[in-house]
Design brief:
The protein is α/β, with parallel strands linked by helices. Helix content is about 35%, strand content about 10%. It is built from 6 helices and 4 strands, in the order ααβαβαβαβα. α5 links the parallel β3 and β4. The longest helix has 11 residues. It is globular and about 35 Å long.
Length: about 130
């Protein structure tokens, strides 16, 4: 196993990752879906309705429960599901959010592409990321 594979496996060991169908159900229960894909991917492939686009570089500041720049309503108890294109970078991001105190942070297995392949709702992309 390569060092990056071991790094990813360790990050995932603390996550309860969710399938696209589970993420959709949790979204219906109030979970926040956070899209960390770059703008070019969101524009080209589409977006999940209601997901919040947050560039990876801003993620910790926008979601840390004690950050003065956090999104309104985010608390340590918030249920957050992070997703990227295919579910690799999102695992690392979700682990980082847990380390900052967001205990219910996790990621979407297979990312946006798995969501779309499952036939779940998407919409044309291109919304700018939250500042």
């Amino acid at each position: 196993m390569s060092s990056v594979d071991a790094f990813l496996e360790k990050a995932r060991s603390g996550l309860t990752r969710v399938t696209p169908e589970d993420a959709d159900a949790l979204r219906g229960e109030g979970a926040l879906l956070i899209d960390i894909r770059p703008f070019a991917n969101r524009e080209a492939e589409g977006e999940i309705p209601g997901a919040l686009p947050v560039e990876r570089i801003h993620l910790e500041w926008r979601l840390s429960p004690d950050s003065e720049w956090r999104l309104p309503g985010v608390t340590a108890e918030s249920r957050v599901i992070v997703f990227c294109n295919e579910g690799y970078a999102s695992s690392l991001a979700a682990r980082d959010l847990q380390l900052l105190g967001l205990t219910h942070a996790t990621d979407l297995v297979g990312g946006f592409r798995a969501w779309a392949a499952a036939g779940l709702p998407t919409e044309p992309g291109g919304k700018p990321a939250l500042p």
